[in-house]
Specification:
The chain has three domains: about 160 residues; about 70 residues; about 140 residues, Heat Shock Protein 90. It contains nine helices and 13 strands. The chain has a six-stranded antiparallel β-sheet. A five-stranded mixed β-sheet has the order 8-10-11-13-12, with helices on one face. It has a two-stranded antiparallel ribbon with strand order 7-9. It is rod-shaped.
Length: about 450
């Protein structure tokens, strides 16, 4: 999952809500168990409390006044065991206190009002500490026996056992919920991936269209994103229609303008006067400008086509054979080296335009040899195709290289051409995000290195 992705946002939001729910549930369950264990402990103490109340209300006449009642818990008879009971007579000047053997020579502390809770029958529950600083759970109740007086009866038990049980439960709860959290996170991750799989399919299909291996979004998509696929296909179709109409209009305009210009130039060529020369000069300028702007319009329209991919080797091979036939009387040797799987991300006619100009210039200026090489590489992580055209001609100086890249500039008027070839290559390569570099060829002449985006 990448940052700022829909999958990461869904995963984090689901994880956050899962964590909140699990933590809240764990706290609630721990609290419920704690209260349950506390109530169970209180019930044990209440059994002893009721036994003591019965003993005070109806004492055994055969037993002494200081005899210990039988409570069924041996720890009441062990000194400082943590289990205690105490009966305090509240009437009279000095309270009479009677307690369990476990109290030894100490007394149970009374519960403070702010630390105790009182049940419906008047029994108070709370926590206190004994002489050994053990934490005790204490319950106490005041019993009014009328003429016999009022008594405070208290029973206490040390809470270590209670706290151990709660601690074990919390540990088991933590392990269980930790495991559950890990399982839920894995399930959430797979759920997010499964739920977003159709979007990944659309992304892959768009990449295939961009790479030229597909023309439309194919397949069935969920109801929620089916309109997206449908509108994308409609947009691709509309884009192709617009480009096709633009090409048709460009062709019609070129035909409509070039034919009258050719007539004007031919008519002016039949006359030998300053006006005819001026008309011919301006008509040629108009023709160059029309060629330039129509070419730019065609190139810009071609770049809007989605998914156009062209194999490089067949195009270069065909151009090389054509130029070899045109210049066969000069006996120029051609070397061509290229991997078969290199593909240009663009229109075939644009590749033919660029490579054709470079190969044509190489054959025009070569003396005996032309070398063409195609290299597949990656630039800044992006696939690229590098087309290198070398000749063994006179070559160009750095100043001349800058000059010939300008539109309409020709260094040798004896060679046929309009001077638009290299400038068109530069502009077209730039529109595709590529470049043209001129340098010295290892075989002695000019090297033209064309870099274009590859699929």
């Amino acid at each position: 999952m990448r940052s700022n992705s829909l999958a990461l946002r869904l995963f984090l939001s689901a994880t956050a809500w899962t964590a909140v729910c699990l933590v809240a549930t764990g706290i609630i369950l721990s609290s419920i168990y704690h209260q349950s264990q506390e109530r169970s402990f209180d019930r044990r103490l209440e059994v002893s409390l009721l036994t003591l109340i019965a003993d005070v209300a109806a004492p055994d006449p055969t037993a002494g006044s200081q005899s210990a009642p039988t409570l069924g818990e041996s720890r009441f008879g062990l000194p400082l065991s943590g289990w205690y009971w105490q009966i305090t007579a509240l009437d009279g000047g000095k309270p009479e206190v009677r307690g369990s053997v476990s109290l030894w020579d100490t007394k149970l502390p009374r519960l403070r009002d702010e630390d105790a809770t009182t049940s419906a029958d008047g029994t108070r529950h709370g926590y206190a500490a004994d002489a050994e600083e053990q934490r005790l759970r204490v319950i106490e109740r005041v019993v009014d026996l009328g003429e016999e007086g009022r008594y405070l009866i208290a029973v206490a038990g040390e809470t270590q056992e209670l706290e151990d049980e709660i601690r074990l439960f919390d540990r088991a709860l933590l392990v269980t919920f930790g495991t559950l959290t890990a399982v839920l996170l894995v399930i959430t991750m797979f759920q997010v991936r499964f739920g977003l799989a159709p979007l990944q399919r659309i992304s892959g299909a768009l990449a295939a269209i961009r790479a030229g291996t597909a023309e439309r979004l194919e397949g069935e998509f969920p109801h929620e994103i089916a309109p997206l696929a449908r509108e994308t296909n409609a947009l691709i179709d509309a884009n192709r229609d617009i480009v096709e109409r633009a090409r048709t209009h460009v062709g019609n305009l070129a035909h409509a303008l070039k034919t009258p210009l050719s007539v004007i130039v031919n008519e002016a060529a039949g006359r030998d006067d300053p006006l005819a020369a001026k008309v011919t000069e301006q008509a040629n300028i108009m023709r160059d400008q029309i060629t330039r702007h129509l070419e730019r319009a065609r190139l810009a329209a071609a770049l809007k086509v989605v998914g156009s991919v062209t194999r490089v080797v067949p195009v270069v091979t065909a151009l090389t054979r054509t130029m070899d036939k045109i210049h066969q009387d000069r006996g120029i040797a051609v070397e061509f080296n290229a991997p078969a799987d290199v593909r240009f991300r663009g229109e075939q006619q644009d590749l033919e335009e660029m490579v054709g100009n470079l190969v044509d210039n190489a054959f025009k200026w070569a003396q005996t040899r032309v070398s063409i090489e195609v290299v597949a590489e990656r630039r800044n992580g992006v696939p690229a195709a590098r087309i290198i055209v070398d000749d063994d001609g006179p070559g160009l100086s750095p100043a001349q290289r800058d000059e010939v890249a300008r539109r309409g500039r020709r260094l040798d008027q004896t060679k046929p051409g309009s001077g638009l070839g290299l400038s068109i290559v530069v502009e077209l390569a730039a529109l595709y995000g590529g470049s043209l570099q001129l340098g010295n060829a290892p075989i002695g002449g000019l090297r033209a290195e064309l870099v274009l985006p590859a699929a």
